[in-house]
Structures are given as C-alpha cells and as structure tokens.
Design a protein that fits this description.
The chain is mainly beta. Helices cover 7% and strands 33% of the residues. The protein is built from 1 helix and 8 strands. Strands 1, 2, 3, 4, 5, 6, 7 and 8 form an 8-stranded antiparallel beta sheet that branches. A hairpin with a 7-residue loop joins strand 6 and strand 7. The two termini are 33 Å apart. 19% of the residues are buried.
Length: 183
C-alpha cells in the first residue's frame, strides 16, 4: 500500500436514520483511534513475575476527531442536533486502502472558533457508543460513497457482502476483435 491522500479519510453521517450517509463537510483534518483496555491477571504464580493479560476480555472503543470549516448547512445542523439531543446515530468512516468502519457514535465535543481576519472553524469529537462493524477494503477510496445502504445492525460482526466498485482480478473490458493489433 502506497501513500494515501488525507482527504480520502472521510467521516460520513447517517442524516435521517435510514442509511443515507453524507460526508461531514468542511473537515480538513480527521483522526480515528481504536483502543482496547487490558485485563491484568498477573499473580504470584505468573512465570518469572511477568505480567499476564487476559486476551479478549477488555472493553473496546473507538474515537474520532476532526476539525474544519463550515461548508454545508445540513451536516452542520445535523451535528448540532445530535450533540444537543444526545443521539447516537451511525457514522461511517472510510479509511483509504483499509476499509470501512461503521456504527453508533456519540458526539462528545463540538467546538466553534474564529478570528476577526479568518474563517469560522469547528472541531468535532466522537466516541463509539456500541458495537462497530468493519468491512475490508474492496473499493477505491474515491468511490467509497458508492456503497449502498447501511451495514446490517443485527449482524454479529461478520462483514456483509458488499459488491466492490472494482475487482482487481477482473481483466477489464474484452478487447474489440476488429481493433488493429498493437505493434
């Protein structure tokens, strides 16, 4: 995997609860962090006094932060509404050449700033509010908006069958039999 454009890391918001996602407009910088708490099970009988951790027992979480400028009234209004109403709608995070993470998030911080000779800016902080789903990359980052509908909320973690936008094993269009051969 080569270098990726930072602008291709997208945060999308379910605008109405029906799986229609729109990119949160105006973001200039975005960050996604995954965390897993460890559960220490070290005891006096631990080999040579080394710490032992219990695998799969800690709490998993994800956080998203972003900052940018106001660009789109509808996503700005939706973010404010989510914050003030304490809602936990689905967000979809497109990570280029990695995949898509989707699930409920709570907006934990919404900051506004501006200076007399500059644009008004905002900062957004989100914390995961439930189980997240991951679908491995099967599309180009620029085409991630072509995904249809939400991921299945009843799914126990297995990724859905999402038709990829491109198939790297597909040789492409068949050659035209009447086209002249290349030298």
């Amino acid at each position: 995997m080569g270098a990726q454009n930072g602008k291709d890391l997208l945060v999308k918001l379910d605008m109405t609860g029906d799986g229609q996602f729109e990119t949160v407009a105006g973001l200039r910088a975005t960050r996604l962090s995954f965390n897993a708490e460890s559960v220490d099970v070290t005891s006096v009988s631990s080999p040579q006094g080394w710490r032992e951790l219990l695998g799969g027992a800690g709490v998993k979480s994800a956080s998203i932060s972003g900052s940018g400028v106001f660009r789109d009234e509808s996503t700005d209004e939706r973010a404010r509404s989510i914050f003030f109403n304490g809602e936990t709608p689905d967000f979809r995070i497109i990570i280029p050449d990695f995949g898509v993470v989707q699930g409920p998030f709570l907006i934990t911080g919404l900051d506004y700033a501006g200076s007399h000779n500059g644009e008004a800016t905002f900062e957004l902080s989100l914390a995961s509010a439930g189980a997240l789903q991951f679908v491995a990359d099967g599309f180009e980052a620029g085409d991630a908006s072509d995904l249809e509908g939400p991921l299945d909320p009843e799914d126990d973690g297995d990724p859905l069958e999402i038709e990829p936008v491109f198939d790297p094993t597909d040789p492409g269009e068949p050659e035209d039999p009447e086209a002249p051969e290349a030298p």
